[in-house]
Amino acid sequence: MENNVLLAWKRLTSRNFADQVSQKWRRRLTWIVLVSPVILLGLALVGFQRTSNWLNDFYFFLLADYFCLVFGRRHIRFIWSLILGTLCAMGCILLLTFWISWVTGQ
């Protein structure tokens, strides 16, 4: 059991994890990477400060997933793509919040 967990962890953190995805899924991920930031920023600009907390968390996790996909396609380790994706999403949310509060004067 322990060996299976270690093997699964090594597979997830290996450099060639992105290479194991089929060509069909790579095309789908490419479309997701291209379309998702436009949708997310549109949703965030329309109602970021006027929505409930769970919806704001949902935007954050979607942005984090987007950046994880971007960093994951650069063939870096999976765990680093999670860390970098989360940090970039937090930065985007903070910048968006400061920009909205500066524009609206709140």
TrEMBL record:
Keywords: Membrane, Transmembrane, Transmembrane helix. The keyword Membrane applies. The keyword Transmembrane applies. The chain crosses the membrane at residues 29-48, 54-72, 79-102. This is Uncharacterized protein. It comes from Levilactobacillus bambusae.
